[in-house]
Design a protein that fits this description.
Elements lengths: L13 H10 L8 H24 L2 H50 L1
């Protein structure tokens, strides 16, 4: 999705709001009004952090950068886990299919 600003958050669909909240590690269950508020609050906090980091010491900037890198690594692990789960599911389907074929062969 294209970039958007805090004012345009209310125009997002619920699925988009949930995606944005999930990307930030925030709770994604609620009615749209609450999701909008939650995302706006998160975006305000992010804006404040950016402003502070722009004016802060290099040490704080490095800490903020490290947090961002940890978040990115978490997202990558999440993606890897989803791939592994999909592979496991496919293997289980194959095993189930093979088992059904074996049972059918025994009946004949």
């Amino acid at each position: 999705m294209a970039d958007f600003d805090i004012e345009s958050v209310s125009g997002l669909r619920v699925i988009e709001l949930r995606e944005q909240l999930s990307n930030r590690g925030l709770l994604t269950t609620a009615l749209k009004e609450e999701l909008v508020k939650r995302l706006r609050d998160a975006m305000e906090s992010e804006k404040t952090i950016r402003e502070v980091s722009d004016e802060s010491s290099p040490e704080i900037s490095e800490r903020i950068k490290a947090v961002g890198e940890k978040e990115q690594a978490r997202e990558e692990r999440k993606s890897e886990s989803e791939i592994n789960l999909n592979q496991l599911l496919e293997s289980m389907r194959d095993m189930n299919s093979n088992l059904n074929e074996m049972k059918a062969g025994q009946r004949e």
